[in-house]
Amino acid sequence: MYLTNREQLKRVVLLVDSRHKPTGDDIMMHEWFKHFGYNVAVVATKSDKLTKNDLKKSEKVIKETLKLGAEDKLYFFSSLNKNGKDELIDNLFLEFATDLD
């Protein structure tokens, strides 16, 4: 009820582990958010653990598993070395401001 009755909630962030294929729970949550019309940003965490080649493979697996389209947002982020932090913050807040218009 918390999520379905929150008119002021405009966007949700779904965290997935970039080292693994999204789980059944990840898929279920993504589908649930989309079903209820939420703007979803998928953030793949622990990207510092992957090589550049592995990041490309991970991106493909995540996009295919969650059935992300061109309009869907996927960001890679590392809390350890902060890679992806600026892009994530800039895009989330820019998109949030756009959602409020």
Q: What amount of the residues lies in strands? A: 15-25%
Succession of helices and strands:
EHEHEH
Tell me the major beta sheet.
3 strands, parallel
Quickly name the level 1 CATH class: Alpha Beta
Poorly predicted sequence stretches spanning 5 or more consecutive residues: none
Mean pLDDT value:
84
Strand order, sheet with most strands: 1-2-3
Residues in helices, as a percent range? 40-55%
CATH architectural arrangement: 3-Layer(aba) Sandwich
How many structural domains?
1
Rg, Cα atoms, Å? 14 Å
Shape: globular
User: Structural class of the helix and strand makeup?
Assistant: alpha/beta
Q: What's the total count of β strands?
A: 3
Walk me through what this model shows.
This protein has three helices and three strands, in the order βαβαβα. The protein has 101 residues and is α/β, with parallel strands linked by helices. The protein has a single domain (11-100), classed as P-loop containing nucleotide triphosphate hydrolases (Rossmann fold). Strands 1-2-3 form a three-stranded parallel β-sheet, with helices on both faces. It is globular, with a radius of gyration of 14 Å.
Describe the structure in brief.
The protein is an alpha/beta fold and 101 residues long. The protein is 42% helix and 18% strand.
Helix/strand layout:
Blueprint: E1 11-17, H1 24-35, E2 39-45, H2 52-65, E3 73-76, H3 85-100
Parallel strand pairs: 1-2, 2-3
Q: Which features characterize this protein?
A:
101 residues, 3 strands, Rossmann fold, alpha/beta
